[in-house]
Amino acid sequence: xxxxxxxxxxxxxxxxxxxxxxxxxxxxxxxxxxxxxxxxxxxxxxxxxxxxxxxxxxxxxxxxxxxxxxxxxxxxxxxxxxxxxxxxxxxxxxxxxxxxxxxxxxxxxxxxxxxxxxxxxxxxxxxxxxxxxxxxxxxxxxxxxxxxxx
Length: 150
What we know:
With 150 residues, the chain is mainly beta. The protein has one helix and eight strands; from the N terminus they run βββββββαβ. Helix content is 5%, strand content 33%. The protein is globular, with a radius of gyration of 15 Å.
């Protein structure tokens, strides 16, 4: 599986448009070459360089297997997609806003062999636990960002 974005290249800088210094909207992402028996996708967008430990910016699961992209500012998600809690803790996308220095922001995409049934509020930890034995393939896309006006 391969995950890409037309907004930035792997390991490159995130445009400020997608951060707290810009429009705070999600960047477009697209994927290809998912396993044929994929029943759903999960997407976790996090910052492993946050001072308090990994910080979740977006948690999505049960994206339909026919989905192969999310547009810029993805507020209308594909039917059936479930939204988990980010680290604020709020539902939906939370823009990168590193307190100091350059941070890595990583999209983790998982192709799953099932549609998950998760009760209550779902965190990335709960999602990772639930999908542990259901991952068919995984891929990542990383961008970096450092605030201009920290």
